[in-house]
């Protein structure tokens, strides 16, 4: 993990002062050079952290049989195409890559308590809405999973109507931003959060808060309540830190509550 500039400066300064007699002035030239070098080292360590994170993601996706690997394979499914065996890579795939035939737009892969690997998938209609697979699409995708899965692995494919997420949210915004601008920005942020469910099929409470607080004009936010239910359930279940979605994706309830409070109101 990258060290802060201050920690790097302290490390450099400590080593210099044990070897040289240096000016103690805070405005001395050598301290300016220490800061420049510390900043460069800090940026380099940040780059290393980013490289490490990206490498770990690629490694997880490339290891056959992992949940990440299965998730990537879901998005590679092409409706109407036959699988062929690649003798070079030793895996099943398609001779032609056709993005228009890749109908899986939402996929989550989670193991159940009995060891079954559960695939939750959905597609997109002509209006851009996330919807369940048709019977034909579901049958073809299930056959695809049966073909690519590892021997001895039990699988189950679910494609159903979206779960419903209900929230009560208070957004504290800067008075320097107009309320209309903040409303629109927060609405777009919540839509983006809903659309970003590519991995895992799990809703994390803190990530929803982050999506809102990272919005321009928003200072902070309080998620007062968060609950969900599947299409087949009558009542909502409260969400603590996180919740797994039955369908793997969700839509917001029509009775969600969101209040906007200028930051100055919190200081009264």
Automatic annotation (TrEMBL):
**Record's protein name:** Uncharacterized protein
Q: What is the lineage of its organism?
A: Bacteria, Pseudomonadati, Bacteroidota, Bacteroidia, Bacteroidales
